[in-house]
Design brief:
The complex is a heterodimer of chains A (258) and B (288). Chain A contains nine helices and ten strands. With 258 residues, chain A is an alpha/beta fold. In chain A, the strands form two sheets. Chain A has a six-stranded mixed β-sheet with strand order 6-7-8-3-9-10, with helices on both faces. Chain A has a four-stranded antiparallel β-sheet with strand order 2-1-4-5, covered by helices on one side. In chain A, helix 3 runs parallel beside helix 5 and helix 5 packs parallel to helix 6. With 288 residues, chain B is α/β, with parallel strands linked by helices. Helix content of chain B is 29%, strand content 17%. Chain B is built from eight helices and twelve strands. In chain B, the strands form three sheets. In chain B, strands 1-9-8-5-4-2-3 form a seven-stranded mixed β-sheet. In chain B, strands 7-6-10 form a three-stranded antiparallel β-sheet. In chain B, helix 1 crosses helix 2. Chain B is globular and about 60 Å long. The chains are: A alpha/beta (258), B alpha/beta (288).
């Protein structure tokens, strides 16, 4: 861990009964960096994401977060109000299923504005202007601002979720299979959007995916997980073009080339 | 009074409720759970209010009971008679004479004094219940003062209707800390709660919650900077007493579209009429 590390997990271990979901995982994330965690189903990717974001406590190990003032915080020892504040300001979480994050009975504008209001924004005009601006950034028509999310398509829902998450300008975003369940063309558009936004706002992100192509397109660094362990980590190109671990070799060679 | 303890409830129950009340007064706007008893009236008729009243009622108190502003409706009459029988206390319909006022859905028009207590009947103490169905979650939100969700509701109203559409049970922030349901009083009455000299107690019998606002406490109705809270009333004067700054009830008088707006606070109206004020409708009747 250096002076600049934004998020750092050390010796993270967690078992569900006799199943070891995480076995001594070390992770580091630097500001503005996009780290992809890849691996097959059940390899502990999502569990790692939940532990890193403080949503799930590990059996052993610690997660450290450096706030904008440079102070280090032990995420799992933080008081609940502080962690909640972090989650609705500095951090964001993008779920695979946008319905988990969005309020389906609240309009698109209200969904985007909620985080602002939770932070104390009390000027309707400002909130609405920011909501409009963010809908524009995620390429949703401005005249859909007062529509309910249930009238949105899957891809639009996912983009709405991203707008809702990024409206408070988080420094760190956790993404759990953000493109899962979408068809290929919608996926491509969404990936492009995420790449643009993350680069422009210099957001650091941990991205969980089983799709090597997504990782190659978005990530600076990649961590390959198998049975709760990180078996290989390094720069994305390096890992994908010259995989060292047998499992990574298998993973890379199993991608179909169209 | 034979066969009943003073004010119906047994002393141990009153003691338990008084302890909850003390805690509620100490933390303005915070909902305190209490062991609500079965009362001889149905839920929704004021079982919470009646238990709070029974616990704070003393031999020398003068009791007034209001239902939707009126002293002469079923709920008001039966609760007033209940305490007249079980406690033998004096009752009144005059706001100024009363030391203890139990109310359903209104705050009297006459300003309350610091030697008075007002007890509200509350059907639903949780202001967030329509927005968040989990009680565990709303408790956490209260604990962390995480009230963004309530503003989302206000935002939605303005986006859809151009204004906040809540006309009663308008959520308030008490002492800059707790979000509170003021019970289903009209939003028109909300400003009366702010810095009120009287002690305000709230009892929800079915939901088993008590909360309170101590005298002279800040009570702020939620709003946006550019959409400030406004009170709404029917733009008419009372047909009986002519008052044009009070909350009105609309009474349909015939099947040809005839209607009459009268004070919802019957005591206030009667007092004004006794003082010589006459409304348009009363004047017409006198002329006929």
């Amino acid at each position: 861990m250096t002076d600049e590390t934004l998020l750092s997990g050390r010796g993270l271990t967690l078992s569900f009964g006799s199943i070891p979901a995480l076995a001594g995982v070390d992770v580091d994330l630097w500001p503005g960096e996009l780290l992809a965690v890849v691996g097959e189903s059940g390899s502990g990717k999502t569990t790692l994401l939940n532990v890193l974001s403080g949503r799930l406590a590990p059996d052993a190990g610690a997660v450290w977060y450096r706030d904008p003032a440079g102070r280090l915080h032990d995420v799992h020892a933080m008081p609940a109000p502080a962690l909640r504040t972090l989650h609705r300001s500095d951090w964001g979480f993008v779920h695979q299923d946008p319905r988990q994050n969005l309020r389906m009975n609240v309009t698109a504008g209200g969904n985007v504005g909620e985080r602002l209001m939770a932070q104390g924004a009390r000027h309707y005009g400002d909130i609405r202007a920011q909501a409009l601006e963010w809908l524009r950034q995620v390429e949703i028509d401005a005249d859909r601002i007062d529509d309910l999310p249930r009238t949105f398509s899957g891809g639009m829902l996912q983009r709405l979720q991203i707008a809702r998450t990024l409206v408070t300008h988080p420094r760190l975003v956790f993404m759990d299979e953000p493109t899962g369940g979408l068809d290929v063309s919608v996926q491509a558009r969404l990936l492009d959007l995420i790449r643009t936004l993350v680069a422009r706002l210099s957001i650091a992100a941990v991205l969980v995916t089983h799709d090597i192509a997504v990782a190659r397109l978005l990530a600076h660094r990649i961590a390959v997980m198998q049975r709760g362990r990180v078996v290989e980590t390094g720069l994305t190109d390096q890992v994908l073009d010259d995989p060292q671990h047998p499992y990574t070799q298998l993973l890379v060679s199993s991608v179909l080339h169209a | 009074m034979n066969g009943y303890n003073f004010a119906y409830l047994d002393e141990q129950t009153k003691r338990m409720i008084r302890r909850a009340l003390l805690k509620a007064v100490a933390i303005p706007g915070h909902q305190v759970p209490f062991g609500s008893r079965e009362m001889p009236l149905p839920y929704g008729w004021g079982t919470g209010g009646i238990q709070v009243t029974a616990s704070v009622l003393g031999q020398d108190d003068v009791l007034k009971v209001i239902d939707q502003g009126a002293d002469d409706t079923t709920n008001a009459v039966s609760i007033r008679r209940f305490f007249a029988r079980t406690a033998g206390v004096r009752t009144t319909t005059h706001t100024a004479e009363a030391t203890l006022i139990q109310t359903r859905h209104r705050i009297p028009e006459t300003s309350l004094r610091d030697d008075q207590i007002i007890v509200y009947q509350v059907p639903q103490p949780e202001p967030l219940y329509r927005l968040e169905s989990s009680r565990a979650e709303t408790r956490r939100m209260h604990g962390l003062a995480d009230y963004g969700l309530m503003h989302v509701k206000l935002y939605e109203d303005i986006a859809r209707y151009g204004q906040v559409s809540i006309s009663y049970d308008y959520p308030v922030m008490v002492n800059q800390r707790y979000l509170m349901s003021p019970s289903p009083i009209p939003a028109f009455d909300n400003p009366k709660m702010h810095m009120m000299p009287a002690l305000q107690l709230f009892g929800a019998g079915r939901e088993k919650r008590i909360y309170a606002i101590p005298p002279y406490t800040e009570v702020h109705s939620l709003d946006f900077d550019d959409h400030p809270f406004r009170t709404i009333r029917a733009p008419h004067a009372c047909g009986l007493c002519g008052a044009d700054n009070v909350y009105l009830d609309e009474v349909v008088t015939d099947d040809r579209g005839g209607r009459l707006f009268v004070c919802s606070d019957t005591d206030h109206c009667a007092e004004r009429r006794a003082g010589g004020h006459v409304g348009a409708s009363a004047m017409q009747d006198a002329a006929e």
